[in-house]
Protein: Spindle pole body component
Amino acid sequence: MSLQVALYPVVEGLAPLTLSDNAIATLCQELEQILNSPVRSISQLQSLLDAYKARIPNSAENQLRWQKLLNVMQVLLEVNDQREIIRYLSAFQSMLIDEIAPRPGREEFPLTVKGLENHNGLLSPLRPVSLQAESFENLDRLSNRRSLVSSYKDYGVHRSVTLQALSEPYYSKMVPETEILRFVPYTLLATTSDLFPMKLNRVDIPSNISNTESGILHLIFEAGLLYQALKRMTDQYRNSDISPLKKALIIQIDKILRTYSGSVNSLAASGKAMSLLSVYYEMYDHIVILRFFEGFTKNFEKTSGDSYLMVSKSLAFHGDLHIRRLSGDLSENLLSLYSEYLLNWLTLAKLDSANEEFFIERIDASNELSVRLNLAKVPDFIPKGIASKIFVIGKTLIFLGKYCKELQCVSDISRKYRNIYEQINCNLSSEFHKVVHMHYNEVTKRTVDILMLKFNYKKVVFVLKDILLMGRSDLIDLLIKKASAVLGAPSASLSSYELTRFLQESVQQSSLRNLLGRADSNQVIGGLDARVLDLGHGSVGWDVFTLDYLLDGPLAVVLNVNRPDGNKEYLRIFNFLWRFKKNTYFYNNEWHRTNQLLRDFKKLAQNSPLVRDLSNKLSKADVLRSQLQQFNSKLENYCFRSIIDENFRKFDGRLSLTKNVNSSHKFSTVRLKSGILMLEGILRPKKSVLDGQEQIDQNQRLFNIDELDKMHNEFLNSILSHQLLASGPNHRVGMYSGQPYPTSLILVLNLIFEFIHCYSLLNNAAHEILIQMNLRGERQLLNNLLIQFNSCLRNMVAIYKNFKESSRLFIKDLRTDGDDELAKLGTVLR
Structure:
């Protein structure tokens, strides 16, 4: 509040009555200037008041009023803080209220809100006007304020008039309560009427209804507005395409609305509505129910049905018993439908009616196994572990039915457990969790048995290791020997049929021939295939040849073997190992050629200086060849033993592949004289075995199809994540070479291959020289061949020097890496 506003009522109360309103307003402005002035004095104040005294007649009463005003202003001159001045003025104002008299010539005005707002100056400025009624100490001031305004109409003169006499003219124009009660039921049912016109989310209450009855109607008509909103929502979504859970919620609300409308009609017909208070009493419980559902269904369009289920379940522990009962009924209704989702998935593996309200979602409609577990949508009343088992059960049923073609097995399991779930009413309790656990164990065990016995999972895994990971080197050696002539040709001229023929012949002559002619109709070895990669123009067969293993049916689900959408792990590993095998083949081949050339040269004149020189150079070149071949063999041996075999042993240990799937029980035995081993005594039959419910050994770990696929992928990734093979941003860089280990290793292997290629040219030149010396051909031709021989020798030595430098840096990187295994490899390669 400003100082001028605080001054006005005090000056108005003390100034002479004949002083006009404009003069009082001007006087307040000038007094404010004096009080705000830093150089203020009593003389200034006296001069100002004398100027206004001259404007009105001088009388004894006026002199007394001017003196009172001067005394008050003198006190205020001694106060420096403006807020303190306002407090003094407010306190003085409350003392003047009873002494204020109406000024002559002032027009009377009615008691209105606007009129009251114009008299803010009569109240204490210590608090805002909007807050003054909240304080008991201001009640008297408010009363005085109204009395002051009323005094202008001389209401205070007729003290003998009763309150009833004053209120009768007002209430005579009001709508009687009986008339109001006649129209209330229409509004409660969201129907417009003459007395209470109803619009969207709005009810108009006439102005000729008393404030008391209007306040009660505000409480009662909340039910009508809630009913209108809920009815509009149910009508909108009743026939629309919404999820089953939300449809069930709409049906539940529609049932509540029918109950409510029946109660309103009964109340109107029974005559119990004797007053508005009785109507409110009868409608109170319905208002709470409608209020609950109106708040519960906010954002209905964006909220999923499973969210409503989880919220209703969480409200089951609410402190309000009424809300607890409402949420309990609602959650029970929604849970019955959600239980159908669970039952359909657990027994039929169906997701058709879930409408993304289930925690199991389908990713690709064309692939029935393309489903995922959304942990964010798992309800709080289902543990995450149980949800994972529920997910695996349904997915495994799809796997058994669609991929393994075990329709009878799936039907038996589904029928058996559907009866069990229905017996417990699919109640999501600890009993339900036990049944899910039992269901999971049986389905998983049945799946593992089928994979092992029917689809030879164990044998296929070992074949993949023996062939694609080159665990059986004799097959690869035979294949290279048979196809070497073809592999040296350009890739465009390679024939898939010819490569397949070489592969079949190699299998028949290798240690894998025992897989042929088996009862499985060569199912295990039949997936082996030879492929040619598309690496572009100019490639030779050695660069584009690879082996593949074709999987289909159930094994393709649990074994990632060069899947079309995968990372082709087996292909990457095979191509890496193929470099070693290719180098080994060429080195052995050239070694045999060198030995034959040395024997042939010895048959010539041994005393010839040329023969001795050529033999010495070939022998020294062979020494260099042996060093590079040893380096290649050491690297090859490390990759096979320390990377592939080591990781496969871990994979084998986790799966227990080397053990029989149907592990026999340990019983006491006795050996007869004939050597036959028999059980000692007679065993009692086990009822659990006869019922097909034998408990799984606690020490036996059963893996589901997702875990089998995951462990196989981890096995491949553990190989490719080794520092010698790893690619990507996480690989380590050598301290001396400044290159990643895979890059350094590939450079060394390329130099080894370049060396043997140059070494092969050297043997070719030596062979031509040998022919010319035997034929005693032209001297010039022999000289040209000697020049070619020496040129190849120089190139070979240059490549060897590059190899030594690259291998030296590579070895130093390995030894300073800090990894013990790599340090040992560096010591071996040194």
